User: What shape does this take?
Amino acid sequence: MSVGELFQSPLLPALLLVVAFLYASVGHGGASGYLALMSLFAFPVTVMKPTALVLNILVSAISFYFYFREKQFEWKLFYPFAVTSIPFSFLGGIITIETRLYKIILATVLLFAIARLIGLFGRKKQELTSVNVPIALFIGAFIGFLSGLIGIGGGIILSPVILLLGWADIKKSAGVSALFIFVNSISGLFGFLTKGGTLPISSVSLIAVALIGGFLGGYFGSKKMNTLALRNVLALVLLIAVFKLYTT
Assistant: This one.
């Protein structure tokens, strides 16, 4: 079944809209969510990676715009991660791994997404400290490589790390993550295409839905918004995807 045929399911665009909205609201592009949905709808792995990266680029750009406009971005926090993540994301994008390993890695990353959605990170206020550059460089390289390897931007891992280390509050971490996702997704996609990969034309039909969700999520998320119920629903969807990925 082609991507175009799979997209005919009325449930897929509805879920895609919610995913883009909620991820953009917290400064993310949504790749882990898109990948989860595509796995639930039995998309082939060869389609999942490039499609998620393209959607990620668009939605994270929108999200970053709104967070930057609200002055929720710090260059000094962003650049130590980006310096190493961009080349390593390209390297990860070149590499193709077998389907079973891909699913296991993706399922593990989705657990971070679930934890982030249900608010396990950043609940408690803590004293903020300056970023440790050497540690940030190492973290950036690791997340960048993983991002390119499976087709995500890495923000779903970066945000919890920043919050746990006390380097920024929730809003600032969202703004940094948005641009981090954008540059890593471009690098990972370029690596994928350089290796001979192609973007399925039929996946373009997913873009309009993701853009609408990303625009609304970025706008409301950069301000004050309570989407607890929707986030819990999405977390449940991702949990189902994790179960499917681990068992198939």
Summary: The radius of gyration is 16 Å. DSSP finds eleven helices and no strands in the chain. The chain has one domain: 9-247.
